[in-house]
Specification:
By secondary structure, the chain is α/β, with parallel strands linked by helices. It has helices at about 1-5, 10-20, 30-35, 100-115, 145-150, 170-180, 190-205, 220; strands spanning about 55-70, 75-85, 90-95, 120-125, 130-135, 140, 155-160, 250-255, 255-260. Helix 2 (about 10-20) crosses helix 3.
Length: about 260
Amino acid sequence: MQQRLECGVYNCEVLYRELCARGDDGKKTILRAYVQPRRRAARHQACVRFETPPGQQGQVDWGHFGTIWHEGRLRRLYGFALTLGYSRALYAEFTVSSGMMAFLRCHMHAFASLGGVPEHLLHDNQKTVVHTHDPGGAHLWNARYLDVADHDGFVPRLCRPYRAQTKGKVESGSKYIRRNFWPSCPDVPALDALNEALGGWLAEVAKVRIHGTTHEVPLVRLAQEPLRPVNVAPYDLSMVSTRWRSKDGLISYGGNRYSVPAGYA
């Protein structure tokens, strides 16, 4: 216990699971009594919580989770999270890119996993969503993202700059992943295995717990959300790019060099 606390793991649910896996048959009340005096109290600014009706809103967030070896290179590891405002049903996925294609692909996976599309999606002011702002408050949307929004039938919305509380539900979801899944995440060498472990945690823990704010099970409330059906025609995520062949018959793409068949060189 002391070793885990020294590593910054103060989540009693995580600690209790790990203790049970080691054969401990104690109760959560004993665990909480031990942990609570040792947990540093977080200071939160008071604010009015804003709730949305079923099916109206989803909130999207990115997080950074260190690095992972992927395809022979050390890559930055990102966590995508989409939380539905009413049910608090959460979809999450790890990627080695936060670029446009990865961003859109995570949206497609989230809609399929959650069983539909909310009316609005709330975002940070990131380049994959919005290009520029002007002093008057207007903004230039990313054209590719608007095309996806039109294809899947949702309206993108932006948070107020420098105000993370605007999308506090998904911020809480990202913290929940970092505090509940990540401390006991298996030491896996591959991105696919990591996402498989995350998917198991979402199904067995995140969606069936009693949510701390709604005091209901997200999976039960998800059935009450009138989400829009997922478009049966998948959005075309392919990208066309032109590359020059080098003198030694290679092309460069994504930081790697690939050989060109002699017939095309």
